[in-house]
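Notebook B, p. 112. Complex prediction, attempt 2.
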Amino acid sequence: MISLIVNQKPYQVEVDPNMPLLWVIRDVIGLTGTKYGCGVAQCGACTVHLNGEAVRSCVTRVSRASGQKIVTIEGLSENNNHPLQLTWQEIDVPQCGYCHSGQIMSAAVLLRENPNPTDKNIDEAMSGNICRCGTYLRIRKAIHMAAERQKTHTIL
Amino acid sequence: MNQVTRRSFLKNSGGAGIALWLGISTWDYTDKTSNIYESKNFTPYIIVDSDGSITIFNTKPEMGQGTFQSIPALIAEEFEVSFDQITIKQSNGEPAFGPNQRAGGSASIRTSYSDLRKVGASAREVFILAASTQWQVDASSCYAENGKVIHKPTNRSLTYGQLVVEASKLDLPKEPKLKDPKDFKILGKMASRPDVPLKTCGKAEFGIDVRLPNMLYASVERCPVIGGTLKSFDATDAVKIAGVEKVAGVERVIGKYHSVGVAVIANSYWTAVQARKKLKIEWDTASFETFNTPEYEDHLRALASQDGLLDKNIGSVDSLQLQPQNTIEAFYETPMEAHHPLETLNCVAQVSGDQVEIWVSTQVPSNVTGTGEFDLHKYIGVAPENIKMHTKFIGGGFGRRLYIDFIIEAVNIAKLTDKPVKLIWSREDATEQGPFRPMTFSQLKGGLSEDGKLLSFQHKVIGPSLMESRDGNFDKTKVDSAMVEGIGVQAYEFPNLKTSYVRADFHIPVASWRSVTSSTVAFPPECFLDELAYKAKKDPMDFRLELLSKPSDTKRVLLKLREMSHWDEPLPKGSGRGVAQWEFFAGLGGQVVEVTYRPDKSIKIDKVYAVIDLGEVVNPDNVVHQVQGAIVMALGAATKPCITFKNGKVEQHNFYDDLLVRMYEVPEIEVAILAEGGPVKGVGEPGLPPFAPALANAIFAATGKRIRKLPFDINNI
Amino acid sequence: MKEQSEIKLHLLFPLKTMIVMAVVLLAISMTFAFRSRNNIMGNTKNDNAINTDSAESVKAFMQVYKVLMSPACMNCHPAGDAPLQGLDGHPHTMNVKRGKDGTGLYAAKCSNCHQPQNTPGSHTPPGSPDWQLPPENMKMIFQGRTPHQLALQLMNYNQNGHKNKEQLIAHARTTLVKKGWDLGEGRIQPPMSYSSFVIVWDEWIKKGGYAPGQ
């Protein structure tokens, strides 16, 4: 039996400790916002926060996450209102939308560690997340917008 | 044939009162499967409840191209409701919605633009009539706005909800009056897409997300040598794994190709995958293991010497007397590609007796529930009326989800149990099994007059046939029109033009890949025009405009490109610009790419200017998004590794060797929309074909090096 | 008999002083030779001057060099800002970077993908609990180094992560170094076995840690 804390809720799951966290989250716990895209840490669609870090859950054993703090896209904000989720909505960043759980989770780590990211920083943070629809230009713009907003809010 | 019946009927919406289900029915079931875009089938699109709630249906599955907003927009505009007032639902292949519940070919808007506006307009008129009757005033003194009918002189109003009972008794008008575009509130304006908020918090349900009680999961081992057949398998070790329910052979059909794989059904996807690794399978590779890409490419090059089948012959190419020094010839090669929608293929199916229920991300609900020759019912032996489906958000289509092969496979798996089963293809499965965009090679020949005018242009396409892959009975003595798409119909006034096609045998299933054959056959002629231009010592933009003396959409596109890219302003040494345009079934687009050649031999794409010619535009913001996305996809196809075969197997497996474009590689892309009235053109695909030739032309301008084979390494020119 | 004459040494300095001076000179000369061969500063342990053998040491290092310059080791000791990848040592895909402390940046930190152990399957990320590059201020670059340069660098306290000889010897026994031989399914092996490597590594250091000529 493995104990997990996902989006602040405790779960007890009876699974093989080697099962990737991704499948535990999706198939056992039932949170399907985190996606399967490649299974080999190439595309980033499976990105969740493990103690705040943007890990690829498709290669993370559930045992690594045992007792640790896991946040999925569903738990990133109370009301779909993380600054990134808001700017993502404001300029219609997603097309098909499949990669965007991972994109937002990665961008959230970037903004937390660098409230003023340059384009280079965005390249460094976000190039592990593939978007087949090619929405990269808007992802970049939405990150800049969210960073701007956060600045204004701090001032206020 | 075409039967126009005016119908309105009551539908009990269960509890909330009476709902009006509206539509003009023009049933045209002479199913011309060769052109799915001709149907004028208006079907029940609107439900109005007496409590005021309004539902509008989208019959074109949403795969990121924005139909979830743009299709209802056409109706909502004329029906005078705002998006705040409506709930949008996806149609699920129900026959009532007609045979065109399909998203593909950039056809969703362009084939529905007037029809759906008429649906909304006729509904509007009926509600106005209902109100005016109730008030005993003239209908012309009333207007509709925001889901209400208002009597202008007195300002009294009634909501659609209040009017629905009366409205449901009226006949729908045959030819409703459409709004004047200057009064548009939704169409032509930037609009937020209502599916976006679902996609930013993990709530949008894709096919792969479907969860049902007692659901099982399946993973299939398929012959790695495409074309091989199953001889036998030993599942002894596989079934030992806890949670494995069953292992069995299952058939999959794509086009004319039938294959059998070994399916593992288990209580979780991961368990099924682990068990699959334990299978011991004997395949009969039937000599397909001798297939290797380099040899096949040599074969295609050799085929180029054949005349092939004639497509177009304008003027007298063959009898022209051209000076040899004024002629050039060039050979272009474009490769196989995988679609790689980020949501891997999947399908949930449940078979209960003679009933089948399916939950799936598919571009073609009509092929799942339809009655045609190539529809699902034919492959699974179930009557179409016993097939029920649920259309989900699609995590990327690009043409891969035009095919129902994985749905056939999933149903065959579901037949092995009475529980619902979710089949998931791994990324490796998708990369290794295809189907793929076929490679096409092109032989170009051109001749100039003494004073550098284009006299003769020949384009011979060589490669496998899409139609033949689809239908084993395809008449090989005829040109596969899909393989010569666009090459003979550009607006250029070629005095002498000859296009032809040499079909190559091929045993690998091939498929439409975003912009279909235009994604490969636009590259050669648009590059070759530049080669001719340079030979004639003319600017490539001028050279093209010389061939466009008459007004045309193409000319407008090129002139717009010329202006927005500052074409005539010189660039510093080491930088260069290239132009290309392409017109085909999907629409018309052009691009100018600006590049710089760096000392380390890499090319930096400084900027891409894109123009798309639309006629009418529904959501301009979405159009820009689509064109940018198409360009990113084209960049990948031009500069990243492609699909190759060795010993009959695909050499690539996942994103570590079939690379896709990433954030740090995307240039600035500026998009201009031309929407000056006229026939509505498509949005999803036209942004793709011009990119590779515009890029190659820009690289030539900057470096003097001509690229004729894709993909090429953009970091090493 | 008082007849035996006392030999009187007419020395420049008194004898005692001479002896002290001789010892000091000897000490200085010994230190000077050691440093010029080994460029070690502040390393006062394990001189083992008696066991140094420059020829044997250099011979051992040439074997060490083969291993360290193989992709299994060199890929994480790059000259630039990004780790290298694969047999051909191309820059790691996905634009990942070293970052200040060598653990990567933002949502592309090494441990975001590289787990505490190898991930099963081929072409999956290899893993180790401490998977990372050397930090920015102590890059420990192998890429592009000649044997001469690499040997000097490895023995240089200020460039080798502040390791003395003992620590250098221990370093070859650490998890991350051993990882080079255990990178997962289908991956390359260094040109000699781990146990053979340890033998030549130890020998090189114990025999003086000499650098080959330029």
